[in-house]
Design a protein that fits this description.
By secondary structure, the chain is an alpha/beta fold. It is 38% helix and 21% strand. Helix 8 packs across helix 10. The relative contact order is 0.16.
């Protein structure tokens, strides 16, 4: 039976899976994203994660029909390159031949490239919480805030850059975003921006245990797990910044629904999946005042595939006739 490997490449982790032709996960591995050796170091990390997932599946690379990778930045499937993936590693500013750098060490296997949130949205639409809906907005709340769009059961890519939900402006002249602009959803809800804001407040004398928890858990950043632990301990700053993030997400999602009238909204990503349904319910509630048609809101649901959704969606690209 031929196998497929899928990789969800993120700012903090490389999640890999090996699946069969029915998309069942046979093996998986999760590695921290290397930060010190640029794009080549990331490619080496991807290869290592795939090899470990293959070991878990009791298989070797010769059984791979193909590899799919969902990556931040601009993924050009035809050229085999990923460009401007600074959320992965800060010096990934140009184009890097990721397909070749991953495929060659695995015996020359074919590698398909797609946008990380687009492939995760496709997986939720076909296998997860979005099943049965003709239109869908996938919102992935993690290091940044990304989204994918499904229209008439198919991914909508626009001219190639559709789905930049995280850079929807929710406040004119608002908080500075990591993209360099102001007032974006991601400026309030992206985990990277939230950490920068938390450090600023902490440096000004505000109390928080966020950074103590980070050190205790031996993390380099305020990971989703750190935020979850701080919220469990009712850390006042963590609660304040999460509430700020929820307000921005709710306003942005409602605006997208007002424009496109999506049937459903699926919320996932590192923070979304980790915080779970209670926080999805808060987003759902805070959306209502912003909806133009508030008596017929879309379904707003937690992603069913969790942390594996992006990697499963990436593996699905191997059989897809067009890039996602």
């Amino acid at each position: 039976m031929p196998l497929r490997a899928g990789v969800d490449l993120g700012g903090t982790k490389i999640q890999s899976v090996v699946t069969d032709d029915q998309h069942a996960v046979l093996g998986q591995a999760r590695h921290p994203t290397p930060k010190d050796d640029g794009p080549q170091g990331v490619a080496d990390g991807i290869v290592a994660a795939i090899r470990e997932a293959l070991e878990g599946a009791g298989a070797d690379p010769s059984r791979l029909e193909g590899v799919g990778i969902g990556s931040p930045g601009v993924a050009d499937d035809e050229a085999g390159t990923v460009t401007q993936a600074r959320n992965v590693t800060p010096d990934w500013t140009g184009s890097f031949p990721l397909a070749n750098a991953v495929g060659e060490p695995l015996g020359g296997v074919r590698v398909r490239l797609g946008n990380d949130v687009d492939v995760a949205t496709m997986a939720e639409a076909r296998l997860g919480a979005g099943r049965g809906h003709a239109s869908l907005l996938g919102v992935f709340w993690g290091t940044g805030v990304g989204s994918g769009i499904i229209l008439n059961h198919e991914p909508w890519l626009g001219r190639g850059a559709a789905g930049e939900f995280g850079h929807t402006v929710v406040k004119l002249n608002g908080a500075r975003c990591t993209c360099g602009r102001n007032g974006c959803v991601e400026a309030y809800a992206g985990r990277m921006a939230m950490e920068l804001h938390a450090r600023e407040l902490h440096d000004k004398g505000r109390h928080t245990d966020l950074f103590k928890i980070m050190e205790k858990r031996e993390r380099d950043t305020l990971s989703s797990g750190v935020w979850a632990r701080a919220l469990e301990h009712k850390d006042a700053m963590a609660e304040e910044l999460i509430e700020r993030a929820i307000a921005a997400l709710a306003a942005g999602i409602a605006s997208a629904v007002n424009l496109m009238d999506f049937e459903a909204v699926v919320i996932g990503g590192g923070l979304g999946s980790r915080l779970g349904e209670p926080y999805v319910a808060r987003i759902r509630k805070q959306m209502l005042p912003h909806l133009f048609v508030d008596d017929h809101p879309p379904r707003v649901v937690l992603a069913e595939l969790g942390d594996l959704g992006g990697a499963i969606g990436a593996a699905m690209q191997v059989d897809s006739p067009t890039p996602v």
